[in-house]
Amino acid sequence: MQNIDPKDYLQQIQRKISDNIERSFFKAALKWKAFKSPQVTADTMQEDWRRLENHIFPTLADLPLERINSKLLVDTLQKVYRKRHTSVIEKVLHTVEGIMDHAENTGLIEMHNCHKAKKAFHYTPAENNPTITDEELPRFIYRMQTANIKPQTRYLLFWNLLTWWLWLGAFGV
User: Fold this and answer.
1) Alpha carbons 145 and 147: distance in angstroms, whole number
2) Which of 35, 94, 109, 142 has fewest C-beta within 10 Å?
3) What are the DSSP calls for 8-43, one per residue?
């Protein structure tokens, strides 16, 4: 490293550092948030941002955009996948793809391959509000009567069932 002015060299390093900070995933996410916020409800944006804070920012926030790829995303989300929270993974990856697409469209990066990360996971469909059929109800009640639970819990459960049946009867269902 001969014939290099130390002052110029230091400025060059500082420029690289500031470029990396400006091109970090977190900065790109902030720009995406400002762009996307008018298009979605405040609750939706808050939920998307919370998922990023919980699952992505701890490991990827300070990385330059050029280093974010599908392999890195898959590795980052393995902990969530082991908990079988596949719907969270889908939503997080959708948000990350939006951030990376916005970064690509605004010229922060040339291109990205983050959309490939979705293919690395097996998604289980969410089971919303599972119910007990009429045929299963007697067995369920018997099991609750014989279960090793606190009486207070048992009474609360039966009270909920009773008020639910009363509500259905009031509406003629």
Assistant:
1) 6
2) 142
3) HHHHHHHHHHHHHHHTBHHHHHHHHHHHHGGGS-HH
44 contacts 64 by C-beta, under 8 angstroms: no
Q: Are 51 and 92 in contact (CB under 8 A)?
A: yes
CA distance 102 to 81: 26
Q: Could you give the CA distance from residue 121 to residue 13 in angstroms, rounded to a whole number? A: 39
- Residue boundaries of the structural domains of the chain: 6-120, 137-170
Whether 161 and 169 have beta carbons less than 8 Å apart is answered as no
Hey, which residues does 24 pair with through a beta bridge?
A: 64
CATH code reported for the domain at 6-120: 1.10.150.130
What are the pLDDT digits (tens) for 86-101?
999 999 999 999 999 9
Q: What is the pTM of this model?
A: 0.66
In sequence order, which residues have a C-beta less than 8 Å from that of residue 61 and are 6 or more positions away?
Answer: 24, 25, 26, 29
